């Protein structure tokens, strides 16, 4: 858990993903298209990925990926990010976190 806390405070937007997950790819594409430049951790490719995945599940991420943190706070998974986007809240949230400058 402490490892996740440290990782999510290093960048305005952090995505925990798996390289084979289509929903993770969708969220990465969406945020990159906005210019957010998230830190992406592919749990099937990084050391301690399984440990991080278990910690995400304990935080309430179900499924564990994608797990999106904005401004150091857990936003949730793909459904939550898409809901924020559709209701117009995502871009202001990214701006407040310092991920967007426009």
Could you describe the 3D structure shown?
This protein is an alpha+beta fold and 102 residues long. It has a single domain (1-97), classed as Glutaredoxin (3-Layer(aba) Sandwich). It has five helices and four strands, in the order H-E-H-E-H-E-E-H-H. A four-stranded mixed beta sheet has the order 2-1-3-4, with helices on both faces. Helix 2 links the parallel strand 1 and strand 2 (39-42). The N and C termini lie far apart (33 Å). The model has no long low-confidence stretch (mean pLDDT 95).
Structural topology:
Blueprint: H1 2-8, E1 13-17, H2 22-34, E2 39-42, H3 49-59, E3 67-70, E4 73-76, H4 78-86, H5 90-97
Parallel strand pairs: 1-2
Antiparallel strand pairs: 1-3, 3-4
Structural key phrases:
4 strands, 102 residues, 5 helices, Glutaredoxin, globular, 4-stranded mixed sheet
Give the total of domains.
1
What's the helix-strand series?
A: HEHEHEEHH
CATH architectural arrangement: 3-Layer(aba) Sandwich
Radius of gyration: 12 Å
Q: CATH homologous superfamily?
A: Glutaredoxin
Average pLDDT, to the nearest integer?
A: 95
Counted beta strands: 4
Strand order of the largest sheet: 2-1-3-4
CATH topology: Glutaredoxin
Global geometry? globular
Low-confidence regions: none
Q: Could you describe the largest sheet, including whether it forms a barrel?
A: 4 strands, mixed
- Briefly, what CATH class? Alpha Beta
The rounded distance between the terminal residues' Cα atoms is 33 Å
Q: Approximately how much beta-strand content do the residues carry?
A: 15-25%
GO cellular component, one term: cytoplasm
Keywords: Cytoplasm, Redox-active center
Organism: Microthlaspi erraticum
Main location: cytoplasm
